[in-house]
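Data card: per-record layout.
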Amino acid sequence: FGLQGLQICDVLMGAGIGPAPPFVTRFAIGGAVTMGKHKFVFGARMDFAQPTMTALICHYKGKLSISELIGIAVSMASKASGKSISTPKMGTPIFELTELKIKVSAGFFRVGGESFWPGFTFEAKFSLFGVNMRCMFNVGLNGIRAEFSSERLALLGNTLMICKDDQCKREEGPKLKLEV
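The structure for this 180-residue chain is written out next.
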């Protein structure tokens, strides 16, 4: 059984065994599913010895634009109706999602370079009108945390630029951080 372009890979299963009941102290499962240029990674970790190191992560990586979603819908409608319907091609996508992470964690810890904050965390990397942006939002028992950053914003043909500092590097635009 298989589907062309579908791959199931990076499967992970783990368990920790202790000397006293409950004998299983840790359990982990994870894996990745790739469909063409879209990759979905998931993982879950339950730690009975250290409950604050319990977490769940879902991670999307690829390029998904609004125009592609509209194209998929138009293609399905075209096939269903039997009529040829075309969609206009855009040079720069209005919105393009490149990475999305959703994490739920019982405490703060790091695993393989990935930081987990207590509570629910949403992280996204995307392009809006050709400008690369990143946002993070966390809601937990300790409060609310939000971060936003982007590349340098250039308006009116580089006449007006909004930068992180006076060096004005392309990859260093404005940043916003909020903690409540």
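Known properties of this structure: The first strand starts at residue 6 and ends at 17. The chain has a mean pLDDT of 85.

See the next section for split statistics.
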